[in-house]
Amino acid sequence: MKKKVYLLSLGCAKNLVDSEVMLGYLLQAGYQFVAEPSQADIILINTCGFIEPARQEARQAIQEAISLKHHHPHLQLAVVGCYVERDRDTLLQEFPEIDILSGVRDFDRIVELLEGRDFQPGRETFLYSHESPRALTTPPAWAYVKISEGCSHQCGFCSIPLIKGPYRSRPVDSIITEIKMLEAQGVLEINLISHDTTYYGRDLGLQQGLIHLLEEILGQTSLPWIRVLYGYPEEVTAELINLFREKRICSYFDLPFQHAHPRIIKAMRRGLDGTRALRLIEEIRSKFPEVALRTSLIVGFPGETPAEFSTLVDFVARAEFDHLGVFLYSPEKNTPNFSLGDPVPSAEKERRRAEIMQLQAEISHRRNRRFLGQRLEVLVEESSDQTPQFLLGRTQYQAPEVDGVVYLQPCHQKYINSL
What is the longest distance spanned by two Cα atoms in the chain? Predict the structure, then answer.
C-alpha cells in the first residue's frame, strides 16, 4: 500500500499551484493524503525563500516536523521549493534530520524523489502544462492559473530571478486548454498569476502578449470571471486598460508600486515614482470609476528618511487604493541592494508599516461605502465556520485569500459555488 502524505504549501499562490501539481502526481501514483501531519508517513513542505520572514516560517515548519519525527522514527521529511533552491547547504547544515531536499526544478519528479529512484534532474525551473496532473486545493468555484515562471526584471531588492531564473511563458494553447478543463470542472473564476503578468509572451515573440492571451480566453471560453493579478505598473498600456472594459474581465488591477519617492524608486530599479503612478491611477479610474486597485509597498528601504517615508504616506492618501499590503525591507544576498545594508531599525520599520496600514484601513472603509445600496454579483464559496448563519463570498473587487470576504444571508447551501 502506498504511503500517506501530509503536504504543507508555504508562500505565494504560484507556490500553491506547484504544490497542487505535486499532489496530482502523487495521487496518480497511488499515494494517500491526510489532513494532519501526525497521520502521515511523509511530510512534504513546499517552502518560500523570497524574504527572511518567509524563511523563518519555513524553518519553524521544518522544526515542527522534526519534533514529530522524533516521536515517529518511520516518518520521512521532504523539503522542496524556493528556500531549498536559494540556500540548500544552510538548510542541510541546520536541519540534518531532513531526508529529502529538492529545489524548484523537479516538482514533476516528486514520486521518484520520495521513492529514491534515479531520474535526470531538471535544468531549469519547473513550469507545468495542461498535461500535468493537478489536484485543486482551492474552493471548487475558482482556481489559479500560472501563465509563466521566473522573472527577467532586475529589481534591486528582489531575489526571484536568482531563485527562478529568467521569465518563461507557457504557450497560449496550453493555458487555454487548461482553462477549458477547469471550466468543465465547474470553475467560475480563474486568477491569472505570474511574477509579472504584463510581461507575458515576450519570450514567445508576442508584442502584446497579455492582451493576446486575454482575447483568446474571452474568445474560446465562457468563464464569467477572469482576474489578472500582479502586473508591473510601468507595463500597463492604454490598450490593456481598454481591454478591461470587457464585462468578463474583473474590474480589478493588482499593481505593486513598491514606493513613491524618486530616489528610492531609482535605487530599487523600479519604473514609476509617485507622480507618474498617480497619473496611471487617474487614467485607470477615468475609464473605470468603480475599479478596485491593489498594491504592495516596501517600508524601511536602506536610507529611507522620514521625509521619504512621508512621501510614501502622502502617495497612499492620494491614491486611495482599495487593498494594500506592506512588506518590511529584507536584505537579500546577491541582489543589487544587498550592499546597502539594513540600517533602518526593525522597530521603526514596524512603526512605518503600522502607520500606512492604519491609513489604508480608513481609506478602505471609505471606499467600501460606495457600494452601499447597490446590488453586486457575488461568487459564493462556502459557509462560515465561525458564523454558520452566513455564507462567504467575494465580489469582482476582491481577489481570493487577500482582500476579505462578503457575508451573505440566507445561508442556503444551494448557493455555494455559484454566482
Answer: 64
Phi, psi of 279 (to 5 degrees): -65, -40
SS3 226: strand
- What is the grid cell recorded at 138? 482551492
Tens of pLDDT, residue by residue over 306-330, are: 999 999 999 999 999 999 999 999 9
**Strand-strand pairing, 406-408 and 391-394:** antiparallel
Which spans in 244-398 are helix H? Answer: 262-268, 274-287, 306-319, 346-368
Question: What are the domain boundaries of the chain?
Answer: 4-115, 142-371, 379-415
CATH topology for the 4-115 domain: Rossmann fold (3.40.50)
Q: Are 268 and 157 in contact (CB under 8 A)?
A: yes
Residues 244 and 192 sit within 8 Å (Cβ to Cβ) = no
Query: For residue 88, what are the contacts with CB-CB under 8 A and spacing of at least 6?
Result: 101, 103
DSSP 96: T
Cα–Cα distance between 364 and 316 in angstroms, integer?
11
Write the pLDDT tens digit of every residue in 275-301.
999 999 999 999 999 999 999 999 999
pTM flag (> 0.70): yes
Q: Which CATH number is 142-371 given?
A: 3.80.30.20
Which cell numbers hold the place of 380?
459564493
Closest CA to 44 of 68, 62, 70, 21: 62
d(CA 15, CA 200): 18
